[in-house]
């Protein structure tokens, strides 16, 4: 339900109520649920970020054309779902994505088996994301991906791990799908999508480890293949390159698990 539709419905409800002596018993509740949907959508798509203060009751009433009762009921429902919290005397603030939001916590990345499980999820999600990105990417998307890979190359050359650049590259592919759900899922996963984020050695150890630097250069070569396919607007090649990249990462972790005597 769009914000404008909700506002129009609120106007009609007010007009109907003014022209009739009979109370509209179900209308305030319906409007409250529609207001919950509208505000919840703003939270989920990032227009209202965690920590942001919601507009005042009066501002919401004016924007959506609803009564104070409707606003308060909607805020109460948002509180119950874990999306907002009210600080008395200060206002109502976005507290997160809600109790039902998908999360992968640190306790779910405690073992190599856990890391492999996340990679299996990524193979399913990011393979299709790469295909969609090839069809829909903008020049701006390509520029951000290129910058991320250049930063990756520079970091490895300086003996650093380039986790941030790796993450930026994959998140930009999600944005290039022009599908908000891919962006939200990747944002929720955060740095957990980069397996070495929990396994990486200190920077000085990396600089003295030629094998690890070779490994990271191979990872970025796989990234280059993905970018080439997306730039060429070849969805099949993009899917294949992403699947190869993530499958290689999964197999590297499986071999590490086997060597550690904890094969999944």
TrEMBL record:
Residues 29-97 form the HTH gntR-type domain. CDD domains: WHTH_GntR. InterPro entries: GntR_C, TF_FadR/GntR_C, Tscrpt_reg_HTH_GntR, WH-like_DNA-bd_sf, WH_DNA-bd_sf. Keywords: DNA-binding, Transcription, Transcription regulation. Residues 1-23 are annotated as: Disordered. Residues 1-14 have a biased composition (Basic and acidic residues). PANTHER family: TRANSCRIPTIONAL REGULATOR, GNTR FAMILY, UXU OPERON TRANSCRIPTIONAL REGULATOR. This is FadR family transcriptional regulator.
């Amino acid at each position: 339900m769009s914000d404008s539709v909700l506002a129009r419905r609120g106007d009609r409800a007010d007009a109907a109520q003014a022209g009739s002596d009979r109370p509209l018993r179900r209308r305030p509740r319906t409007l409250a649920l529609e207001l919950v949907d509208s505000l919840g959508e703003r939270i989920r798509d990032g227009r209202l970020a965690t920590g942001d203060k919601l507009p005042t009751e009066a501002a919401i009433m004016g924007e959506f054309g609803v009564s104070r009762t409707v606003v308060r009921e909607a805020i109460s429902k948002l509180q119950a779902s874990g999306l907002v919290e009210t600080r008395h005397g200060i206002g109502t603030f976005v507290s997160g994505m809600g109790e039902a939001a998908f999360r992968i916590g640190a306790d779910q990345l405690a073992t190599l088996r856990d890391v492999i499980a996340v990679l299996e999820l990524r193979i399913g999600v990011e393979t299709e994301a790469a295909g969609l990105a090839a069809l829909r990417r903008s020049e701006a998307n390509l520029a951000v991906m290129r910058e991320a890979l250049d930063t990756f190359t520079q970091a490895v050359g300086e003996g650093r791990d380039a986790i941030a650049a790796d993450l930026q590259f994959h998140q930009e592919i999600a944005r290039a799908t022009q599908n908000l759900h891919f962006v939200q899922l990747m944002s929720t996963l955060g740095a957990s999508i980069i397996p070495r984020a929990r396994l990486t050695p200190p920077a000085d150890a990396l600089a003295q480890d030629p094998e690890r630097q070779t490994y990271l250069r191979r990872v970025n070569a796989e990234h280059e293949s993905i970018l080439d396919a997306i730039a060429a607007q070849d969805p099949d090649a993009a899917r294949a390159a992403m699947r190869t990249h993530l499958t290689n990462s999964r197999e590297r972790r499986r071999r590490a698990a086997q060597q550690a005597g904890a094969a999944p």
